[in-house]
Amino acid sequence: MTDNVPGMGENSNADEVLIRPAGGPMNVVQMAEGPQPEDFEVALESLNQWQIAWRRFRRHRLAMVGSAIFGMMILLAIFGPIIWPFDRLDLKPVAHSGGNPPGWMQDPRTLADPFGTDDGGRSVFVLTVNGARLSMLIGVGTAIIAVTIGVVVGSFAGFFGGRVDGVLMRFVDLMLTIPFLFVILVMARFFGAGDPIVLTLIFGLLFWPGLARLVRALFLSLREQDFVLAARAVGVSDTRITFRHILPNALGPIIVSATLLVASAIVTEAFVSFLNFGLKATDISWGNALSNSQQYQVVGNWWWAFFPGMAIALTVTAINFMGDGLRDALDPRARE
Amino acid sequence: MRDLRTYFHVMDGVVRAVDGVSFSIMPGETLGIVGESGCGKSVTSLSIMRLLDMPPAEIPSGQILFEGRDLLTLPDEEMRKVRGNDIAMIFQEPMTSLNPVFTVGDQIAEAVIEHQDLSKKAAWDKAIESIKAVGINNPERRVKQYPHELSGGMRQRVMIAMALSCDPKLLIADEPTTALDVTIQAQILELIREVQDRTGAALMLITHDLGVVAETVKDVVVMYAGRIVEEGSVEEVLLAPKHPYTEGLLGSIPSRGKRGVRLNVIRGTVPNPFNMPPGCNFAPRCPYAFEPCGPNDPHILDASPPDVACWLYTAAPGSPTPPRVRPRLDLVEALG
């Protein structure tokens, strides 16, 4: 096993520690009569599934970069608006109606307006930083709602099977036949009125069916596992088996799809806002920045759309890398 | 257990996996159930534990009396208390019968907490104690380990520890050594026999390995196609098999005494479960089959002497005297 990972010097040593207990020779020694070499055992380190996954995740370079960027975006969403508050009324003169281009285009040494300004002379940098808050909130909020509903529905369907499964899954099928874009746009227009919380709820309520299917499939396969039968044989109750035995085993794929849900919710928010169906035009989000920058149709004010757009692209890519790394790390079949 | 029948309703019809099986085990006694794959051994044990999914399984008739109570009519909640507490089970696959995300101590303690009014701490101590009792060294360390850190033999010891943690009155071991390598098999069998002796529990050992039976139990039941074909003490059944099927089984074991001699093969295959022969299930493969075997179905309950279901020994309807052909004794001698 260690031969497969050249250049992983320090980790491969740690790995050998992992392999040993399953390997056999130690256990034979264990069972032998006579004095036991207790010192021999001290080298063994108990790692649970999550520690092993973390070990594997750390080795996934892109995923580490992705998580670093995602972490930065989260910090930016929390603290950015405090450090660089956005003041809608802080207007400055602009060169033309599309706003001023980034400062460094005139003078490479200046730090003023690194992302240019909007039509009112307000910094696009500050706009982008402040936009992170709503975009991330909607992304994470959607994922939380969708995962909660998806896990509950999926685990009920998967564990109980039969009629419960039939009814729930037909409902999921129904949800998936609804033309997604159309419903989002209509619902956002009718219930949304530009409220980010309502928008998050709408996304969450529309995003869960895929996850419910995933969870159901996981449960269907896990409930046939020997350890579930063994748990039933010692008299563990159904609810306990569902939540204590099956759910923790299904957590890996659920976490992976939750991260990917964050990414798709951010993109969805951007385009719904871009089409003016989402947040109020005065709210600050990345999607709104893209939308507002188009209003004047000024050829050449690329910075106003480019930097918020880059923020979306960067975040979504980072999350996807992170999800990719998580998938590899949490896959029980993948052993380096 | 009286006249147990377990049928499976599947797409192509009804499979009579267990079709009228009766036997009894007294406290402290050991009973082996032998038969080839698919003869209904495991289904019998899962029926006792009521661990079969219904549907597709159905138990149309029969009684499983345990300390005067019929397990088949107990309410689910009562049955759950019986599982693990009164009747415990050891499974075939130690590699997959433990939940990979919890430490072995957690899993044993869980079984204890389900049935005994103990604190977490007390249950944990009990887990350590029971792990010690199955001959695992350094139990305080082992309880904190995850299943993947243990070898197959170790895991089977843990499964035994879990089964014994609540001092069951009946221990069902379903092919407990099949998945282990030969050196470990002997140790595990020795362990099972020893704990059975120590706790005074009744043991029901299910296996296809006649060698395992010979070493471990006192009485044997031989099953074929969902029926008991022969029963008796180990010595009787293994040294002087009466039923042609038992004889065939014994003849197909390689042994030192038979070096260079062709192994006996039981002709044909197990009958199609959807289309059982009308008379004796074994008749199409039986070397001694004669007229009564085709139309008449021998049943061990009607047999006299009452330990073998075969027309060779019991007078068939229409043919007043059984021919009493002794099975080929040369085979028995060759086995030693």
What brief labels describe this structure?
heterodimer; A: 336 residues; disordered N terminus; B: 336 residues; six-stranded mixed β-sheet; three-stranded antiparallel β-sheet; globular
**Class from secondary-structure proportions of chain B:** alpha/beta
Task: Name the chain pair with the biggest interface and residue counts per chain.
Answer: A-B, 33 and 44 residues
The total beta strand count of chain A reads 0
- Name the beta content range of chain A: under 5%
Approximately how much beta-strand content do the residues of chain B carry? Answer: 15-25%
How is this fold's topology laid out?
The complex is a heterodimer of chains A (336) and B (336).
Chain A: H1 9-23, H2 25-31, H3 38-42, H4 49-59, H5 61-83, H6 124-160, H7 162-177, H8 180-192, H9 196-222, H10 226-233, H11 238-274, H12 286-294, H13 302-330
Helix pairs in contact in A: 4-13, 5-6, 5-13, 6-7, 6-9, 6-11, 6-12, 6-13, 7-9, 8-9, 9-11, 10-11, 11-12, 11-13, 12-13
Chain B: E1 2-10, E2 13-21, E3 30-34, H1 41-49, E4 57-63, E5 65-66, E6 69-70, H2 76-82, E7 87-90, H3 104-115, H4 120-133, H5 139-142, H6 152-164, E8 170-174, H7 182-199, E9 202-207, H8 210-216, E10 219-224, E11 227-233, H9 234-239, H10 244-251, H11 329-335
Parallel strand pairs in B: 3-9, 3-10, 7-8, 8-9
Antiparallel strand pairs in B: 1-2, 1-4, 5-6, 10-11
Helix pairs in contact in B: 3-4, 3-6, 4-6, 6-7
Describe the structure.
The complex is a heterodimer of chains A (336) and B (336). By secondary structure, chain A is an all-alpha fold. Helices cover 71% and strands 0% of the residues of chain A. Chain A contains 13 helices and no strands. Mean pLDDT of chain A is 75; it is low at 1-43. Chain B is of the alpha/beta class. Chain B has helices at residues 41-49, 76-82, 104-115, 120-133, 139-142, 152-164, 182-199, 210-216, 234-239, 244-251, 329-335; strands at residues 2-10, 13-21, 30-34, 57-63, 65-66, 69-70, 87-90, 170-174, 202-207, 219-224, 227-233. Chain B is globular and about 65 Å long. Residues 325-332 of chain B have low confidence and may be disordered. The chains are: A mainly alpha (336), B alpha/beta (336). The A-B interface holds A 18, 21-24, 27, 30-31, 36, 38, 41, 44, 46-49, 225-227, 229-237, 244-245, 248-249, 332 and B 49, 51, 80-85, 88-89, 91, 93, 96-103, 107, 110-111, 114-115, 135-138, 141, 144-146, 148-151, 153-154, 159, 162-163, 166, 187.
